[in-house]
Amino acid sequence: MILCLDVGNSQIHAGVFDGEKRICQFRKNSSVEDSSDQLGVFLRTVLRENGIDPAAITDTAICTVVPAGLYSLRAACIKYFGKAPFVLQAGVKTGLKIRYKNPQEVGADRIANAIAAAELFPDQHRMVVDFGTATTCDVITATNEYLGGAIMPGLKLSMNALQAGTAKLAAVEIVKPEKALGQTTANSVQSGLYFGHLHALRGLLQQLRQEAFGTQATTVIGTGGFASLFANSGVFDHEVPDLVLTGLRLAWRKNQPPITA
Q1: Which helix (H) or strand (E) covers residue 261, if one does?
Q2: Which residues contact 231 (CB under 8 A, 6 or more apart)?
Q3: What would the pLDDT profile of 5-43 be if each residue is shown by its tens digit?
Q4: For the residues of 52-67, what is the DSSP string, one character each?
Q5: Is there a catalytic annotation at residue 6?
């Protein structure tokens, strides 16, 4: 079994794969202050609570956009699972042709998403929308060229900015409103967050598609914590909640030494 860890700015999203099947997933608030022992004990405890013997974990894999926390997490994997983790970073095999001007600038989570999109939706142009702390849009050609994309503030980040930058706007629950016309302050903020994000994405994806592929057909995949809010909105064609974890597992597999007789 392999334990995959996607370390974001807000949360650690983890999943356990037995072969190609994900059998467990869980989340933890991410913090660079966590020690290797805190992380290791947490991971082993959560595995047991989900009916998985920690001794059955043969490999671990990490992708992170928080470099400051990598040392502790790597040390936790070594100490509590007995083996150095695979880290998705510049120089590893991805199966992609990275066309970014500086490939080392691309976030590991975006690369993991692109790897998974290329595997799950082969031989077609794709765009991935990941609804995380930031909402990222990534463009991958039918020949597995990663072209780049766009980054915008995510829903929660936008709400926090409104709360911090105004005197009278409080935090609200992030939901899909029934209509755009808000008739309370809370409704109005919810409307602005949701419908503002929705229509910004529609326009942004349309322009990305036009610049990258012209009129050619393109498959759009949605993922991330808030993706379910936009189901049936026309923003994406398919929702794959664990796309990053799937891509991380695939990257780990691509970097395993060949089996010799």
Answers
A1: none
A2: 222, 239
A3: 999 888 899 999 999 999 999 998 888 788 999 999 999
A4: --GGG--EEEEEES-G
A5: no
34-50 residue pLDDT tens: 899 999 999 999 999 99
Structural domain count, the chain: 2
**Sheet containing 86-87: order of strands:** 21-29, 11-18, 2-7, 59-64, 86-87
- Max distance between CA atoms of the chain, in angstroms, equals 70
User: Exactly one of 6, 59, 109, 242 is catalytic; which is it?
Assistant: 109
**Could you tell me if residue 256 is inside a domain?**
no
CATH number of residue 55's parent domain: 3.30.420.40
Give yes or no for a contact between 220 and 237, defined as CB atoms under 8 angstroms apart. Answer: yes
Which tokens hold the place of 114? 């692109």
The whole-angstrom separation of Cα 243 and Cα 115 is 9
Whether residues 122 and 24 share a domain: the answer is no
Q: What is the sign of the dihedral through the CA atoms of 91, 96, 100 and 106? A: negative
